[in-house]
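Below is how a single chain appears once it has passed through the pipeline. First comes the sequence as given, then the structure the pipeline wrote out for it. We keep one example in the README because the format questions we get most often are answered faster by looking than by reading.
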Amino acid sequence: MDQRTELSEFLRSRRARLQPSDVGLPDYGGRRRVPGLRREELAQLAGVSTAYYVRLEQGHGENVSAAVLDAIARALRLSSAEREHLRRITKPARRRPGRGRSTRPQQIRPEFQQLLDAMESVPAYVLGRRLDVIAWNPLGNALAGDFAALPPEHRNMAWQVFLDPAARELYLDWETKAADVVGILRLDAGRDPDDPRLTSLIGELSLKSGEFRRLWAAHDIRDKGHGTKELHHPVVGRLTLRYETLRPAEEADQVLVAYHADPGSPSAESLRLLASWTATGPARPSSPAVRPDGAPTPDASPVHGDPGRPPTPPV
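Resulting structure:
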């Protein structure tokens, strides 16, 4: 991802979504040549010269101060995730010479996996860089798409949402889910613009999905948080579930996503039914096994077609 182009397009997209009335400026009427605020209006709000802002919007952010960035972020009404993205694409962190990127698959600590497996009644999985699904428990696997049966390159939330037709059936509000995924992926791209695997993923999604191309071009930024999801599961039907996102203290690029239903609700009963179905079906793996040193165990080869996977009961 070219950082100058990203900075330029991001600032333009954020400016285009604001009208003078949104920020307390008079609107003298008349048709504007482009949507949103003019550059001089944004510069006025941020307390910088128009020439300075124009240069920044052209992608020249090398010498901009933190105070000016904060002023521009306030003027653009940026969210906390958008502010983080702006800081990163303005002054990207580069790897020091001689320190290459590890090619080993990202994994979680064995103790973290033990915690996942102990959450027998809570569907949960762990997302790593570029929204890779790097760990899960049996109920999380049963709820969100049977990660264990996928080849490693397809254990990715963005790939699942845009390229797996089952995702459109699973997420009742697919458009919102898709927009969230793209916003998080773009935030990741700002954190590590030189990640070749992320570049490859974005290229594949852009080539194969028109919806992804449209959402990617919007430059919206999201971060994983908490909320409610409406699902239609092929085994237990419709579910209304709340989700929470938790970050391990020493693993900044990993997040635990856990789902739960309101106590006593029909969805809570459906989750219990799904947990029972998962527990009584043929044994299936949770996450790829790891040794205490973090390396895969000898029998932890990727599962490409789980022969013990039970057939989906009729709904």
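The chain is about 40% helix and 10% strand.

See the next section for the split statistics.
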